[in-house]
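Notebook entry, structure prediction.
Reason for the run: the old model in the group folder had no record of what sequence produced it. Starting over properly, with the input documented here first.
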Amino acid sequence: MSSPAVIEIAPSDPDLLFPPTGSTTSSSATTAHLSESDVEDLGAELDAVRRAVMADLGDDDARYIRRVIAVQRGLDAGGRALLLVSVLPPAWLAGTAALSVAKILENMEIGHNVLHGQWDWMNDPEIHSTRWEWDSASSAEGWKYSHNYVHHTYTNVLGRDRDVGYAVLRVDPTQPWRPHHLLQPLLNAGLALGFEYGIAIYDVELEEVVAGRKPWADARRELGGLWRKVRGQLAKDYLGWPLLSGLSAPTTVAANLTANVVRNVWSHAVIFCGHFPAGAETFTEDQLDGETRGQWYLRQMLGSANIDGPPLLHVMTGNLSHQIEHHLFPDMPSNRYAEVAPVVRDICRRYGLPYTSGPLHRQYADVLGTILRLSVPNRRR
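New structure, fully documented this time:
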């Protein structure tokens, strides 16, 4: 595999993943020192980083994702086997732990990244974005639209990126305050516990129906599809597997519920730490006018934040601990983000830009502090 030291910076390739949507970031305190040519030079360097890595993909990368899938399936099978005798407390603890880790790996390092098309280059029909359906309440197709397209195109743009607060929370001081925001620390806790279901319902855009901008018939059709997916998930975890456990059925239900909650809370923490800690910026719709590719890159860098930690943490976060690199290169295989992170950090240093990164506990404390602080109206000056 390539290492950061040998990545070659070459001229920009115009036929890359995201063509210009129209152009982003107007001057701010963070970017005022950059000229238009500086921004486009930055974009050319990042294009070259992506091109070098994508040209270097091969057997080592394919072995990586197949190994992660094998480990995940082994943990899932082992956990399910232990839960057959989960009336025994040690078996319940071990089975629940194995199942929790399996569900996290399936959602984060496998499902999320497969659905981004990161492994489509392998041409393996079993690990392809068009064929994969993940262990989550959201359907793969719905997720690819709301996440891959809307969120990754309009990252942190108020009014366009619905992931800014998920239509429930106020996470930026420029968002209007509403009385229900007083409850948002509790709403956030509830969202964390049932994150997969919160996101699935959020994808239906019910607030658009209430505002009259989306026909109820469309929402009803989407809710029907959502219910079919959720019904299958509920039947699998709380009926099928418990029935196979015989006398251990009640403890298997408890184990499945625990594993799902652990997965939800972990996913919520990782995703929120990547977008809402101190240092992550938001943008306005007018900043999209005439956005160039270099400006799109700049917006991704400024609107995302990383989590510092060891390799195991990166795997368990689906490498979303490298959220900056993921937003710059969403279709790059996740195992390569650790390789390009030092290069991206150096680019930020040379262009005088922040590279927001910190340990999980600090990033999450920032997020919770923001949610608490913005639960009340802004102070008048």
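Summary: Residues 1-26 have pLDDT under 50 and may be disordered.
The old model has been moved to the deprecated folder.
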